[in-house]
Amino acid sequence: xxxxxxxxxxxxxxxxxxxxxxxxxxxxxxxxxxxxxxxxxxxxxxxxxxxxxxxxxxxxxxxxxxxxxxxxxxxxxxxxxxxxxxxxxxxxxxxxxxxxxxxxxxxxxxxxxxxxxxxxxxxxxxxxxxxxxxxxxxxxxxxxxxxxxxxxxxxxxxxxxxxxxxxxxxxxxxxxxxxxxxxxxxxxxxxxxxxxxxxxxxxxxxxxxxxxxxxxxxxxxxxxxxxxxxxxxxxxxxxxxxxxxxxxxxxxxxxxxxxxxxxxxxxxxxxxxxxxxxxxxxxxxxxxxxxxxxxxxxxxxxxxxxxx
Length: 308
Hints:
Elements: H1 10-31, E1 50-55, H2 61-72, E2 76-81, H3 93-103, E3 106-110, H4 114-123, E4 128-132, H5 138-150, E5 159-163, H6 168-180, E6 183-187, H7 196-200, E7 206-209, H8 212-216, E8 221-224, H9 236-242, H10 249-252, E9 260-263, H11 275-278, H12 285-303
Parallel strand pairs: 1-2, 1-3, 3-4, 5-6, 5-8, 6-7, 8-9
Helix pairs in contact: 1-5, 1-6, 1-12, 2-12, 3-4, 5-6, 5-12
């Protein structure tokens, strides 16, 4: 039996796999234009497949998009909250992986510690997908790249500006920059900057600066994320440090004319972004949210060896 294809980070698929996923996602999205959401794709490529979805963190987009992805591909999904599993009562991640591999065809896990996803993949005999960890969020970034491509932009040579917290989403954007040849300039306050190891994932295409104006100047795409992640206290000191990095209309005007605004949601209006930007004409966040579904359908197909 060949080793399963896991999708823990973009590097698992590599340049060819990521490109194949994006091309397939664009094709499948366009083929469904005008269809009802519950209609199964014409080829039903995952008929007979079941995906177990483990949640140790709350979710809206990840939960619904993966469930609908499996339905549209002709398969089924099973939601498992960690607190109601033996995993939440002390069973090891390794043992959970071994057991689930006997029941289902694939596992998606959304958790805190990236080491848990790695341990799951090390012991599972079916594909494991990272639905989010404290280190990375590759499924989100594939949706972001799909959103950019869907506007007619090409990835090589783009400038992407990141404002705010040097978090897991930024890590995956930086990794994408190294794979697809675009530049990421992040602006983060002292104490919240990405590690050098994260910047190194960009293969020389990622930098971090202190000034939000420097980061956003001439940017084709502007990205931010919530400053207070799930499970964190609403830290007033962190909010105060972040406020100069808020994306408002004045800052957005310093980007390239027609620049796109992205945010993976949920958004805290008036904190990391103002309402006039998030609801404005440059915002692609609703397309971005929808594209979680389309990108993940193709990630699933890649994991099951159907593309790439």
